[in-house]
Amino acid sequence: IKTGRKVTSLHFEIKDKTKEQTLEIPFENQDILYRLTKQFLLSEIQAKRVILQVPEKEINKILYEIRLNMDNIKSLPAYTYTIFKRKYKDAEL
């Protein structure tokens, strides 16, 4: 926290991540989890969030669109996750 030109104190926020590590995915979505983590290089937590918040048909549609534009993408995981976040702003991704 700044007062004038000097920094007078620091404020740290520590968040608990244990909730995110215990996300369970139904067995029928294991194929999508594999595609998101191995082919599109999302982290496991990001992939699980997408699977829990986005319908399966929409996931497949978005992944297909990303595959078509893959030549123009610099960072595949960042682009993929950003697309899901933009299309599903209300979901907790």
Could you explain how this protein is built, in words?
This protein is mostly helical and 93 residues long. The protein has one domain. The protein is 48% helix and 4% strand. Strands 1-2 form a two-stranded antiparallel ribbon. A hairpin with a 2-residue loop joins strand 1 and strand 2. Helix 1 crosses helix 2. The chain starts with a strand and ends in a 6-residue tail after the last helix. The relative contact order is 0.13. The model has no long low-confidence stretch (mean pLDDT 86).
Write the layout of secondary structure elements.
Layout: E1 2-3, E2 6-7, H1 30-39, H2 44-53, H3 56-68, H4 76-87
Antiparallel strand pairs: 1-2
Helix pairs in contact: 1-2
Concise summary:
The chain is mainly α and about 90 residues long. The protein has one domain (about 15-85). About 50% of the residues lie in helices and about 5% in strands.
What characteristics describe this protein?
48% helix; 93 residues; single chain; two-stranded antiparallel ribbon; Initiator Rep protein domain-containing protein; mainly alpha
Beta-strand content: under 5%
Number of domains: 1
Order of helices and strands: EEHHHH
Helices and strands: which structural class? mainly alpha
Number of helices: 4
Number of strands: 2
Shape: elongated
Helix content: 40-55%
Largest sheet: 2 strands, antiparallel
Distance between the termini: 30 Å
Uncertain residue segments? none
Arrangement of strands in the largest sheet? 1-2
* Whole-number mean pLDDT: 86
Overall radius of gyration: 18 Å
Protein name: Initiator Rep protein domain-containing protein
Organism: marine sediment metagenome
